[in-house]
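S.,

Sequence below, as promised.
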Amino acid sequence: MKNSRLIPTEIIIERLQYENPWWVSKEIPLIYKNMLRRLYFDLFYPFVTEKEVRRAVVLMGPRRVGKTVMMFHCIDQLLADGVDAQKILFVGIDNPIYIQRSLEDILVLSQRAVGAKDLDGFYVFFDEIQYLKDWERHLKVLVDSYPNVKFIVSGSAAAALKWYSTESGAGRFTDFMLPPLTFQEFIHLKNKNHLVQQSVIEYDGESIAYWVAPNISEFNKEFLHYLNFGGYPEVVLSETIQKDMGRYVKNDIVDKVLLRDLPSLYGIKDVQELNRFFTYLAYNSGNEFSYETMSKEGAIQKETLKRYLEYLESAFLIKVLNKVDINAKRLKRITRFKVYLTNPSLRTALFSPVKEKDKELGNLVETAILSQWMHRENLDLTYARWKEGRLEGEVDLVLLDDKMFKPKWGVEIKWSNRYFNSPWDLKSLITFCKSNQLKSTIVTTIDMSGTKIHEGINFTFLPASVYAYNIGDYTLKTKTTAY
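The prediction came back faster than expected:
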């Protein structure tokens, strides 16, 4: 017997009325209304209100980054913009009450629940849509069948959502990735914006607008807090959760992805092997790997390793960075690469918080800075590493210009003030800049800032925390809301 017969229609209608209290109160629940909006809200909301292009909006992202809250904030803004409260529908598809019901069934029942003659002008939010089998096919049909309804859906299984939304929903879906918090958003959510002020820095012989931190000591305390606890809104705002990161983040985010989402999507049989592999990567975030060393240390076959890396990256848990040589040329055969967590607080969840003088802090700072860049689409980020005879070196971050076939810039990420007074010790960076005719470069520090010139190269030194903040700010400014 189908579940739809076990659950009476009247019960489902009551549930829909319960999930949509604004039909009566004209307001979203206070628990959501009182939460600060993520800075990404201003980028996402125009997709919700776009009516000229007939597309559903697919809000993707890893678990616990605030997708459901973002939906409620959109509903709050629609109400503020004068949209009829009874034309806004929210449904949490993860509720078992909807099992065996198609999206259209739920939509028809919602129409009955609100007592509407038709659905013209409705905004329909389906949360956690991945719980519905063949959701992409159902959603595509709804987009075609209800041209005057705007559909907004969310889901945590990034791998499946990305695949289905690009393949099955071609021309019908618009993807929006909501990543873990940037350091800028972390400062915003903690109401610490007073710690930064607009100023200028010298780069490439020019003065450019930049956020700086007058009290760098206080700012660095927040940065260290971000490294340990900053990826997820709920963690940032709850000291209780911070005291038990293992239970909250590991059990609710990592384990559900590793032990449930990915195995169900890809048919992984040895989930403990995948779990061990991810833990190994997390501990070594920011290090260079090879398939040979991974296979040997993890006792996993190379082809299986390659698949695991693809799965973990598609689930937005890791980022793989490929290597270029001293001339910023790609290697024909990829044998070595770096792997980073998509946000540094994942490491805290698996192990323990890092302190200011821990030797692991350097890699975690590098992980944090790369994670700020991950929010940018279509960036060809790499790292440089070479060995030619006795000549060898590495540059932490290189941005390639695919059209010009050369690097746009190179950045050396340090959690040290040592090089501020001895830029000549940055031998690898100097060699790379000379090999690629780069006249300017950035080097991060703990708390020193300023410019130095050595061998014709302009070095701009910036605290790592300040650099991370500005990457997030620049990303938000340059992101587009165009389809």
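Residues 153 and 400 are 34 Å apart (CA to CA).

Coffee later?
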